Amino acid sequence: MRGPIIFIACVLVLIAGIVVWMVGQLAPMRAAAPGSAAGSESGREAVVDEPPLIAEGRRLHVKLGCAVCHKSDGSKGVGPSYAGQWGSTVALANGGSATYDPGYVRMSLLDPKNHRNAAYPGLMPSYLGKLSVHDVWLLTVYIMSQTDSAREQAYEWAREM
Ligand code: HEC
Description:
The protein is mainly alpha-helical and 161 residues long.
């Protein structure tokens, strides 16, 4: 009566083998699904490529409380989001306009009253006398890097700082 037992054992081993193979096939599929760890490969690369001074600018942006009012994901906070804004023309509350460039960021930080974005209330605090020239640059390249089309240039400037 050994025959049937050996036969059943063989079938079980075969089934176990098929299950192991199927799990092996499914694992990479799951990893590549959108939103999973492997699916956000390009996002991870972007962080790896990021110059240290951009990360430093981001940390300073949080440390100074800027991130409370400014989002980088395009959503409106108390203040404008940075996403996609670099290089655009900003209508100012004083009737003039400004190009969103390093000079505009600098004046927004040091003299916000006279450079207020017309679409927002005057809630931007002045950082006059509170930031070093280096700080202003760290914040500038960080803000610039939040616009996709300006990111490469921002990274280049950050590497040259
Ligand atoms: C209490 C909220 C608040 C904080 C904190 C704050 N901001 Fe602002 N910020 C605003 C508002 C509101 C505006 C729009 C009005 C204006 O232009 O003054 C603005 C405008 C700006 C602009 C011009 C953006 C545009 O699209 O016109 C820049 C750049 C900026 N802020 C950077 C910063 C940085 C960097 C910090 C931190 C050092 C900071 N802000 C802190 C509220 C804030």
